[in-house]
Structure formats: structure tokens, C-alpha cells
Amino acid sequence: MSATATITMSALPSKSTIKLAPAQSHAEASSSQAQNQPPKSQKQMTKTERREQQERQRAAKAATKAAGPQPSGSNQNSAQVKKGAPPAASTSASVKKGGKGPDGKPTKDTKETTSDDSARGLRIFSHFGLPKPPGPSKGDIHPAIIRLGLQFSEFKIVGANARCISTLTAFKTVIQDYVTPPNNTLSRHLLTHLSPQITHLVSARPMSVTMGNAIRELKLEISGSDIDLPEQDAKNLLCQKIDDYISERITIADQVIQETAGTKIKDGDVILTYARSSVVEQVLVGAWDDGKQFSVVVVDSRPMLEGKKLLSVLSAMGIPCTYLLLPSIGSVITEVSTVLVGAHSLHSNGAVFSRAGTALVAMMAKQHSVPVVVCCETYKFAETIQLDSFTKNELAPAGDIFSSFPLTRSKDTLTLNKQLNLEILNPLYDLTPPSSITAVVTEVGVIPPSSISSIPLALGRTTL
Amino acid sequence: MPDLATTDANTSASAFPVVSFDICETYVSFLKNEELSPPLAAILALSKLIETSDAGTMLELVKALNEGAGALKASTSNPISLNAGCELFIAFVTLLPHDSASFSDLKLELVRQGQKYAAEALTYRDKIASLALGFIKDDSVILTHSYSRVVMKTLLRAHERKRISVYVTEARPRGLGLRTYEELTAAGIPCTVVLDSAVSYVMDKVDFVLVGSEAVVESGGLINAVGSNQIAIIAQAANIPFYALAESYKFHRLFPLSQYDLPTHTSNILSFPLSSGGNVTSPPTAGGIKSLHEKSTNAGCIRQMTPEQIACNPGVDYTRPDLITLVFSDVGSLTPEGVSQYVVGMFAG
């Protein structure tokens, strides 16, 4: 604190007040008595007088912009601010920013430009909001949820099925650790307990349709749980219901889809698939295990390059595979017999919401009369109608967080970064119109896209 | 009942091979009835199977039915329509609420229901005829394909009150279009046979196209004698409505992704003959080439395809749902999308 020793004479009274500041809680009381005594000490000044003094000091500082006294000046101001009024806080904050000296000056400029940048943001897709890392958790978030949120935001868990299963598994832990507070029932309070957890997950990464449907079912089960059941029994019952949901609508559904779609694969076929769908992977592996001889073309795209994982799984089984990136699909499409893709969600008008690039693959296939088969469980059905890819979508975060292969140069040199006139836009999903799809294979059967809305009917319920 | 007893006397019900033999024979004997189409004959054959079966539980019965259906399918090269009937009946058997006292009562009930359904199904063609009547205007020129009993009924019904004239395709190789021609002319309806290759030539003179069906599939598409797809494509290009007539027992859970995804598509169809010296797959085709040479030196005027060449051609084809305007059925007039919703509802419930 040697800088403070060089304080000018006018600031001396304030130095003494700094030491006294913590001890003083209500300076205004004493200052009202000593209004007419010059020179006033800080504690004796009214708010307006203190503000005036700060303004004068700030003007003085601005006039003499030199390296030395400025850091100390900012220290003074920040100390004053602690007992000052809120408007003083904002002025000293701006002074602090400006008071960083010559090195502070350029800092101030770049800060201004970056704040302008984020204010401008992405002109299109600005309605999605920018992807941000999960902030400090507010409220009582269970550690399993915090871990899950982190995994979501870093894209360690991707895929509609994987996210749903991990969410439900985490919620099982939350439910088991939950204790009903006194004078409350589990069926009502658990819902309010789960809400901040769900909000935390949504802030990490926007919720997928599968998670939404599963959570809606879970809330239905919770609100319908019997009040008279002892707490542990009720919790066990809920966990059992969650297990049943996962088993019935995901695991077993996938097996049925695997068998049904497997019948569409014949010896000598060339199957084309895009990125990585867990269901399509199961279908291909199952068909190969059944002894069918076929080959696979894996089409992939940046930035996620998910197809590499699928490629490693398939080639480890011995399936002849070809790997290419999306722009070269035109050169192989004439050799393909069927296109198999997965889905993030299925909409009432028959449109399929899936990884960005799927629509291109489907349209190209349709153009060449190659049947496009979408493998999708019924729990991915969304009652909404979606007509285009940009009313509802998600942006991937900037920077390259997806590549896992070893690099000779650092990742930063290979990725595009935001510059003054360059915004990076990475939507994660796109919409395939129903006209490009030949059939949708679900666990209730093979359905043409025009009849997707009959799925709830087939399941025997009015809503899903 | 007495005729059943005589057939029972001929079979020893316990031995499995005799039962499956029985079902194919029964099926063929039912088919002899002109009115019965393959799905109905299959349903009746399966009901007969239930009668003669000694299954004691539902599981055994369904298993026996599936085996019988499998045997029927294996006995013919075009199993699609009889498959529709089998699936419908087996779904009905499994979904029927069991309120009978004993299992033998249940079996009798199933048999009775099966025969009742078959009897009722014979009235479906009249229902469809009355439904389609509303779409046939006076002085219509209709194009139809091959021979279909339900189309015949509709045309004869229409002729009672309106003036219609009919173009019918020859429908090679079986030439069933000629049978249509004979029956229509006998009824007094002006009819002309057109070559299969002249359909686009005649399309602009036609008011609408009316075809029967072997099966209507889950996508809303149509499986019918080969040539229907061509007619549908030409009709769409000329903006002519394409109507299909199908009884509800022809609705099938099949979903072909393309022409070659049909169960009737074998590796033999559209195969190229290998060179006549030493080949594995097609000695008959090699013989076919020889006989063609013979024929061309002999007759000179009209050439015919040899049976081997005809064997390389499909018997049925698949018409996509977007080419079909409406499907007339005993459950009503449905759009192709409506058909798939109906089929999903029927089999998933």
C-alpha cells in the first residue's frame, strides 16, 4: 500500500475515513449534525455532498491522466463507494475501468467493442440466445444434476436417447435422496423440488423433446402418487416407474425397431447413414449378427464428426464401411440402396427433426429414388408442428469442443474464432420435410410420414 | 357339418404333415369357388384348421395357425393377398376377448366367426360397387386393367343406370383383360381391348381409371397385376383420377420401400441371362434363346415370348400412394393416408 503514501493533501481526510469506514454504519446520522462545519470529514458529509466531492475528484483525475495516482485514486473511490449511494458505485466502477492507466486505456476500448459485439450478436438465430457455460447454481441443486449439466454443456453426452436416459437416471438419484419436509406431501412438494433441477439442466443445454416427454410423464406419475404410501415406498415406486419407462419406451422399443428395420436390409444392400444414431447403430449391428451381408456408407459432418464413433463400432464388427463428409454425398448416392437415419423428434405433420445435415441427405436420396427410412421410437413424438429449421433450434457453442483425435497443432489454430466481422453459426438440428421421407419405423409398426399423427391412436391413447 | 365329417375321416388330425397338407388342399378347394378371393379362402382354410386342430391352449392354437399360414404362403409364388387374409384372421383370433367357458367352445366360436366373416365378406363387393357408383358420371369412359371381380361388379352395376364405355388393357402375359372384354360385351357394355403399351395413347380419352387390387399396403399403396403402376403414373401425368377398389380384408401390414422390396420379387426376375456356355443360374434362359431362334425362322409374323422369358418378369407391382386418388373400400372411400391410418389402427389396437 505504498501508493497510498503519495496521496495528495486533499485526499488525506478520506484516508483516515477509510480506516474508520467499517466501523461506521450510518454516516448520514452524524453528518446531518455537522453540516455547516468546513472542512467536513467524509463521515460528516451528506450523500449529495459526498457525490459532489467524488465528481470533482473524478474530473480532476480525468484531467490529469497519469500512471501514478490513478490506481490509488480508484482504491479510494471504491472504498468510498462501499458506504456510498448506488449511483456512486456505477461511476466508480467506470472510473476503475478507465483508471487502469495506459494499459487500461486499450483495455477499455476492447471492452467496449466486445460489449458491442455481444449486443449485436447473431442477427439471424438470435432468438435462440447464445450458448453459455452453466452459471453458478442457484438454490439447492443435487450434485448428480450438476454433474449432468456439466456433461451436457460440454457435449460429453449427446444424442436424444442418451440424454433422456441419463436425465432419468439422475432424477432417480434425486428422488431417492429427497426427504419430504414436514407438513408436506411427496406428490406435491417433489414437483417443486424438481423444478430448479430441471431449470439447471435447461440452462446447461436446451432440453430435448425426449427429455421433455419423459419429464412430463415423470411429473404425471409424481402427482398421481398415493398420499398414503410411506415415503420410501413411494420413492421406490417412482424409481420403478422410471425404470419401466426407460425399458418399455426406449430399450424394448429399440429392439422391436431393430427387428422391423432389419427386415428391410437384404444381402448385397448398400446402406447409407448420417452422423450417429443409437437406433441405427443397433439396427445395423443386429442385421449383421443375423448374417446379412451388406455394406455401409457413413456420412459425417463438422463440427461434431459423430460418424467417427459409428464407424469405429461398425468396422470393429467387420462390416465393410465407407466414410465420407457431407459435401461428397452426391458422388455415392447412386450406389446406395437404402438410407437409414435416426431422429431427435418426430412432429405431427410428419416432419423429422434431426441432426443438421439429415435433411440434405434425405432430399438427395429422394431425388435419386432411394428410399429414406427413419428409425424412431414413439416417445420422440412431439405434438407440435414444425415447418422449418429455424423457429426452434439450438446453436453449438463456439470453438472446437468436439474433436477428440490427437492434433499436431493446438485446437485453437484449427478452429474459426469470432472476429470483428465474423460470427460463427452452428445450428445443431434441421428439419426434414415429410415429402422426403419414405417410411418411419417405430415400435408400433412401419408408418408413412403422412400418418404420423395416428401414432397416439395406435398406442391406444389420446395424448402421448 | 356332414361334409366336414367326411374330410375329417380322411385325415389323421394328430400328425403334423397331414394337417399342413390338409390346409393347402382345403385352400385350393375353397378357391374353386369363383366368388372367393385368396384372402377369404385363406380365412376359411384357417377356420377349418381350428376345427380339426387338437390344440388345448390358445398358445398352441396360434402356433398351429401360424404354421398353417406359413404352409399356405410357401405353396404359392404370390402369397401377398392370402397373407393379408391370414394375418387378419390370426390377429382376430388373438384379440378376441375370451368369454367362452371351455377351450373347445372358444374354438367353435372362432370357427363360427370365421365362416360368418367370410359370408359377410362376399357382400363387400356390392357395398363397394354402390360406393363407387357416385363417382361414375353418365357417359364416362373408364380405363381398367386386367380382370377384377370387384371392378366387374361395379361396372355392371353402373351399366344398369348409366351409359359407360370401357377400355381394358390386355394385361399380358396372362391375358386376363380379354376375359373382362368378354364379360362386359356379353352384358352390353361397349368395350375395347388396348395394348399394354398403348395406355398413354388412350389416356387422354379416359375420364378416370378404375382398378381392383390384390392388396392394399400400409403405406397406402396398391399391389396389383403388373402394369397398374404404369397406368397410375400415366394417369397422374395426364391429371386423370386413379381409383382403386379393395375390400377391407385385403389391407395388409406390408410396407414395400420400392418395387424390389416385395415378397414376390425373386432374384430370377429381371435377371440377365448368362452366356449359354456353362452357367449356374439359368439353363432355361439359354434354352429360351434357342427356341426364339427357332420360332423366328418358323412363323415370321408374330413373335411370342417364351415361358422362360415370361418367368423373368414380375406378376405384380407396387403403386405408390401419391399416385392413387382414392381407395374405395367397404369401410368407406379412403385417401391413401386414410388407408394407412386405418391399417395402423386395425393391427395395433
From TrEMBL, chain A:
Residues of the signal peptide: none
Q: Where is the composition biased (Basic and acidic residues)?
A: 46-58, 100-120
Q: InterPro entries, alphabetically? A: IF-2B-related (IPR000649), IF_2B-like_C (IPR042529), NagB/RpiA_transferase-like (IPR037171)
The UniProt annotation puts the region (Disordered) at 1-120
Q: Write down the Pfam families for this protein, in alphabetical order.
A: IF-2B
A single MF term (Gene Ontology):
translation initiation factor activity
Q: Which UniProt keywords apply?
A: Cytoplasm, Initiation factor, Protein biosynthesis
GO cellular component: a single term: cytosol
Compositionally biased region (Low complexity): 21-42
Would the keyword Cell membrane be found if you checked this record's keyword annotation?
no
Q: Where is the composition biased (Polar residues)?
A: 1-17, 71-80
Chief subcellular location equals cytoplasm
Kindly list the places in or outside the cell where this protein is found, as annotated in its UniProt entry: Cytoplasm, Cytosol
Matching entries from PANTHER family are given as: TRANSLATION INITIATION FACTOR EIF-2B (PTHR10233), TRANSLATION INITIATION FACTOR EIF-2B SUBUNIT DELTA (PTHR10233:SF14)
Protein family according to the UniProt entry: Belongs to the eIF-2B alpha/beta/delta subunits family.
- Quaternary structure and interacting proteins, as annotated: Component of the translation initiation factor 2B (eIF2B) complex which is a heterodecamer of two sets of five different subunits: alpha, beta, gamma, delta and epsilon. Subunits alpha, beta and delta comprise a regulatory subcomplex and subunits epsilon and gamma comprise a catalytic subcomplex. Within the complex, the hexameric regulatory complex resides at the center, with the two heterodimeric catalytic subcomplexes bound on opposite sides.
Name-wise, this protein is Translation initiation factor eIF2B subunit delta
Automatic annotation (TrEMBL), chain B:
Task: Look up keyword Protein biosynthesis and say if it applies.
Answer: yes
Q: A Pfam family for this UniProt protein?
A: IF-2B
One Gene Ontology term, aspect cellular component: eukaryotic translation initiation factor 2B complex
Question: Is Membrane among the key words of this record?
Answer: no
- SUPFAM superfamilies, per this entry? NagB/RpiA/CoA transferase-like
Q: Which UniProt keywords apply?
A: Cytoplasm, Initiation factor, Protein biosynthesis
Report the subcellular localization: Cytoplasm, Cytosol
Q: Which GO terms describe its molecular function?
A: guanyl-nucleotide exchange factor activity; translation initiation factor activity
Q: What is its main location?
A: cytoplasm
At the top level of its lineage, which domain of life is listed? Eukaryota
What does the similarity note say?
Belongs to the eIF-2B alpha/beta/delta subunits family.
How does it associate, per the subunit comment?
Component of the translation initiation factor 2B (eIF2B) complex which is a heterodecamer of two sets of five different subunits: alpha, beta, gamma, delta and epsilon. Subunits alpha, beta and delta comprise a regulatory subcomplex and subunits epsilon and gamma comprise a catalytic subcomplex. Within the complex, the hexameric regulatory complex resides at the center, with the two heterodimeric catalytic subcomplexes bound on opposite sides.
Per its UniProt record, what PANTHER family does this chain match?
TRANSLATION INITIATION FACTOR EIF-2B SUBUNIT ALPHA
Name the chain's protein.
Translation initiation factor eIF2B subunit alpha
Naturally occurring in which organism (per UniProt) = Suillus plorans
